[in-house]
Structures are given as C-alpha cells and as structure tokens.
Design brief:
3-stranded antiparallel beta sheet; about 350 residues; 18 helices; about 15% strand
Length: about 350
C-alpha cells in the first residue's frame, strides 16, 4: 500500500501551458533587446519626390496686368536662381512651375510656388523675392470675419481702421513689426517671420475689435523697441561696429542678413580661401567698394557673410558678393557696382 509521501499533486494542464508560453515570450523579449535594429542609410536623392514636381498657381483677374508688366522680374529668379521651369498658361490663367534636370534644391519648387503666390496675393515683386532668399519667412492670410463677424458699414469701418488715413496705420504696423501687409477687401495677407506675423496680427485684430489706434500705436512702439534692441545686440555679436549696429535702433528700414559661401557654391580648402580673398580684395578694397556703392555694412567671418542695410541695398550687395563667389572678375563686378551707385544716388 502506498504511503502519503508517495502521492504527488498533479498540476493542471492549462497552468503548465500558460507557464510554457510565458517562458517563451520572456526568451523572445530578451533576444529582441540584445539585438539592436539597424536601418540602412538613406540617400538624399531618395528624399526628393520625383512624382510631385509640378505646381499651379491661379492668378486673380486684377493681377493679370501687373503680372504682364513684371513677368521678367518673376521669371529671372525662378529660372536662374532656383533652376525651375515656369510659364503662364493663357487657357487656365495659371502660372505653372515644374522642376528640371538642373534643379538641385529639394525645396526650390515650394519656394518658387510661394514666391508666385505672394505676388498673386498683391505683394510687390521685391517683397515676394524675400521668400526665395530667406528661409524663415512665411505667408499668412485671414479674413476680418474670422476675428469678428461684420457686415456693411461696420465692415467698411473696420477696414478703414486697419488702413488709417492715407494708409498711415498700415505703414506703422509694417514698420514696427517688419512685415508686409496687403488689404484685399475683407482679406488680410501678411508676409514676414513667425514672431513678426504674430505681432502684426495682434495689432490688426485689436483694431478690428474696436481698439482706438492710439492704444495700438503705444503697443507697437513697445514691440518696435524690443525688436530693435534684439537686432542691435545680435549685430554687435556678429562683428559690426557699435555705431553701425545702433542704426538698427534709430532707423526702421534696416535689416540683418546672413548666409554662407557654401549656400552659393560648395567650396573647400584653397578654393574657399580664394573666394574669401576675392570678396575682401587687396587690403579690403573690394569689400569697401561694395559697401560704398550699396550703402551697406559687411562682415566677413570665415565662410559666413553678414550684411546690414536696407532691403534693396542688401539685395544689391548680396548679388555682387555672389558674383565674386561664382568666379566673376572684380572688374566686371566694379562696373555693375558703378551702375548700382548711380541708381542709388538718383533715388536720393
């Protein structure tokens, strides 16, 4: 006869199966943790969308004539700088842009579309060009009814408060926030950097909601003072003289722009040193000539170039510097600078 010690408790089959499954899962989790997942490196060419190489921008009827008059100003930067193909389709009344074999920048198509769209919304060509040259600019559009539902005379009065007498209020907001604003009936379009657009929109919304212009002007002065102080410190840190950087506080139409030589043309070693030498010139003569002709101030910091001046003057100085980087002889650049200096003198 069997004793009690000889009896063994039988474990249920379900519990044994559950223990087996848990042990297998634990083993698999440990194996997965020990093996690090490695993904192959992606070729930059694979990031480019080969199928989406076309943009179509509808042109409103009231912009047909300005488009015809400024077509070469629109055509040149899109083709020469962005290396895109552009045409105006007479049947659909749209500007069509597509990539070509020479297109290198993956963002070129979007920049070209934003540039043409800004012009179609009513911005000047010179202002819209900033979307191509600078990466931190954006377009924002909204309607007055998005802020406050208005109709009839109330809507007209709101538009009048935003524009001001002879456009003074709009110009004050533009100068204080360093944006460009277009009023198109009940729609408002703003071109500028993210923070500046936010400041401009706040001022416009206050006017729509009924705030008196004097109160809005007071807030704008504070915004302008903070922006000028920030730009002054930044300009001094980049290497500009204190007297030159102070102009950012005293004047409203001065800006800072920075870019690298490799943004224009990829250069290394001796080729990069020669490009820097061409920009500076013997004893800095070429740099001084560009500064005097364009009425800007330029700082060369290794392969980075910083320019301080008005919007149009910065564009002229950058064009001259880019030509030197691309290999144009200084004598040819001097000839173009004389023409620029003559036009600048005539404007004054």
């Amino acid at each position: 006869m069997e004793t009690p010690e000889e009896f063994k408790t039988q474990r249920p089959d379900r519990k044994r199966k559950r223990d087996t499954v848990e042990a297998e899962n634990a083993t698999m989790d440990t194996a997965e943790q020990n093996v690090s997942v490695q993904f192959p490196q992606i070729n930059p060419a694979q990031l480019e969308d080969q199928t989406d190489g076309f943009r179509k921008i509808t042109i409103p009827a009231h912009r047909y004539t300005p488009l015809k008059e400024n077509w070469m100003k629109i055509y040149s930067p899109v083709v020469e700088y962005l290396h895109l193909q552009i045409r105006f389709n007479l049947k659909t009344r749209c500007v069509e842009i597509r990539t070509s074999e020479q297109t290198e920048d993956s963002q070129a198509l979007q920049k070209g579309a934003d540039f043409v769209k800004a012009f179609a919304l009513g911005f000047e060509v010179e202002d819209a060009l900033a979307l191509i040259r600078l990466d931190d600019l954006f377009l924002e559009s909204f309607e007055i009814n998005d802020v406050k539902p208005l109709k009839g005379d109330n809507l007209s009065r709101a538009i009048g408060r935003i524009a001001g007498k002879n456009g003074r209020t709009k110009f004050a907001i533009e100068n204080a926030t360093r944006c460009r604003i277009v009023l198109a009936e009940d729609k408002i379009h703003i071109l500028g950097s993210y923070q500046n657009i936010a400041n401009a929109r706040t001022s416009i919304c206050n006017l729509i909601l009924g705030s008196p212009p004097s109160k809005v002007y007071g807030k704008l002065r504070n915004v302008a003072a903070r922006t000028a102080e920030t730009d002054f410190v930044k300009a001094f840190a980049l290497g500009f003289e204190v007297e030159d950087a102070l102009a950012l506080i005293r004047l409203d139409d001065l800006f800072l722009e920075s870019f690298e030589i490799n943004d224009v043309k990829p250069l290394k070693g001796d080729n990069l040193s020669r490009a820097i030498g061409r920009i500076a010139g013997k004893n800095g003569r070429t740099k001084f000539a560009i500064e005097n002709a364009t009425r800007c101030r330029i700082v060369l910091a290794e392969d980075k170039i910083h320019i301080l001046g008005s919007y149009q003057n910065i564009a002229n100085a950058r064009t001259s510097i880019c030509n030197l980087i691309l290999g144009s002889p200084p004598s040819k650049v001097y000839g173009k600078l004389r023409n620029v200096a003559a036009r600048t003198a005539e404007s004054f």
